[in-house]
Amino acid sequence: MRARIALVAIVSLASIVPSGAKPLDARAVLAAERLATGGRAWDRIGAAVVTGTITEGGAPGTFEKTIDWRNGHSRTTQVTGIARQLSGYDGVEWGSNNGIVNARDLPALIEDARSKAFVERGGWREAAFAGNAGLRAVAAEDGQSVTIAFRPAGGSDVALTFDATTHLVTRITVDTDDGPLVTTLSDWRSIGPVRYPFRQDTIDSTGSETLLEVQSVRLQRRADPAAFARPRPVAHGHLLAGTSSTTPITLTGSRQSHILVPATIAGTETHLIFDTGAANYYSPEAARRFGLAVSGGLNLTGVGESSTNGGFAVADRIAIGNAELRDETVIVAPLPFPSTPTPQGPGAEGFAGFEFLYEFRTTIDYPARTITFASRDQPQPAGGVKVPFYSDGHALYVEAEVEGHRGIFRLDTGDGSTVTIFPKFAALHALDRGEGPAPAPSGGGIGGQVKARDVTFSRFTLAGLHFDNLPGRLSLNKAGAFTSRTLAGNLGAGVLRCFRITFDYQGRTLTFEPGPPAPGCNGVH
Questions:
Q1: Is the pTM of this model over 0.85?
Q2: pLDDT tier at 475 (50, 70, 90 boundaries)?
Q3: Which domain holds residue 389?
Q4: From 50's CA, which of 179, 223, 348, 410 has a CA 20 to 30 Å away?
């Protein structure tokens, strides 16, 4: 039996088709597509193994993807330059790189992943889907295409566009948390009794593009559950002396809130910004200084409205104090900030963050200006407030409250401001009252600057600590991470510096211990 599809909502087509569009029989549209691509042959297919080339960041690589046609579970191996990455879906998206296996359990991403899995396996061809009484199809005014919009159970909104002549799907739009993800399908070819699109071109809301060009498709009657198993984690982190390593940090930047740490990369001393949302990331100039060979490519998106390209390299050793990572695949791309030299040498030449947080129990003590890496079996702090966190694969997310409204915030030590509220959350809770100076670029990162308006929040609450009359920002960006439809906002170092924070990635918790009164933290209770 094929899995049944439940539709929890039929999405309005008004926003995605011209005003003169004409309604059609959705069942006839779906039946025509099913017949054009294989008809009853789809009922005999349990899985497919797809191989080919993948181009992102302007560089080609190879991929192999196994898809379970019954439930959408998948596993992909991608090789780009020297980087070999695994990813998959088993009800939750996961990724594996540098021996780390991490689930993307942020609630909005779970919804997005369900819809991606649905379209990956062509779930619209199932009788349970086509038989939904509320499903509607609308033809474009020129008569060249037909669109059906819907929402798979527990998923995000999806729109399918069919060619009115060939009946094949030409475009799939998934309304992800960061905006529309649009995939154009073409070059449909016969694979045994069915047809499959050999060219799949995907563009996200920032303009970042990923092109799949399929070379082969192997159909299977049954899926092997072992083909979708997550790999076992492999530790890359080592403490060179004792069970912990404490290193002084410097708070830098215009607000004296970015964390600057001394580091050694492939035997060369440098300084890095420690950013909870960042991977090991260096500028091209720094990579040359470290003797790293760059290859491959990837798309990089972040807080801005655009994207940039990067490449990969391998660093045999990355050390902060006595905490060391070995044989790490790193990202090489332009820095989103100017690197200003210091009397001690070059300024910050890149980032560290996620890999250290995952490999070690990490404590950032803002008041004492230290960072400590300990083995995972070290005891948790006895005091403080323990808070669970979510992950998008790299960044961390916690619940907090602004003016009585609870939401999920990205925890971002790389953001020097206090709290930035995202547009949809602000609109939902009437937080944008049109006050403050005219919007202007205000900081930024990967993908460009953040357009924001300065505001003051009467109360912000994190881990039991209340901030009264907290200066903050309202994001006015139109694309990128700061336009999330479900997240409340971004939580920066202007608030985090009032705490000693311990990160326990294995336990999926953070422990917040309030520090003594300090500039910006006075009056906090």
A1: yes
A2: confident
A3: 385-514
A4: 179
